[in-house]
Amino acid sequence: VLSDFCNQNIELDHFTPELIAAKTFADPHFDAELNLVGKERGRIMAFMPGLFKEKKGRPTGWIKWFAVDRSRRREGLGTQMLEELERRFQNRGAKEIRVSDCAPNYLQPGIDPRNTEAAAFLLKKGYVKTGDFFHMEVELAGLDLQTADKERMLKKEGFRFRRLQPGDRETFLTFLGGDVREDGYRVDKCY
User: Fold this and answer.
1) Distance of alpha carbon 65 from alpha carbon 46, whole angstroms
2) What is the pTM of this model?
3) Can you say how many angstroms the Cα of residue 66 is from the centroid of all Cα atoms in its chain?
4) pLDDT tens, 147-158?
């Protein structure tokens, strides 16, 4: 149901139930109290998932993405949800709120510049553009991805290559030296 709502009301992305589960409910910082759903007669009218964590030691709230049913836009529903989520972040001690770029488990790295309605809404509410973020892709067909020759050369210099194993988890997390909760989420995806 939520994926259908998102597909009908977010023009530039495609949502599957699996994607929503992975990007929302499986996020290592998921908190049901920060995921707002507006319903009318049992039907979803708005959705605004958020999360709270520290970014470089600074308590930060994130709005992962948001949507309001096309038939209910410009009626204040998005504003009510945004203000409620801002209040919840403030009550937790957030010093700032960011939109979309909540690594490591973001749906998109920022507001898609083609989504002028969402960008205009946030600008009107006092949010400011902090950078340009974009997705990139490459077609792998036809690329030479063989590394055996380079690996042999590096092996002569004492390097060893193997896939990360579950027993390497703690050593690798120490090596990364970051947020264990976020890095652990990423590392666990490697096996």
Assistant:
1) 11
2) 0.72
3) 12
4) 989 999 999 999
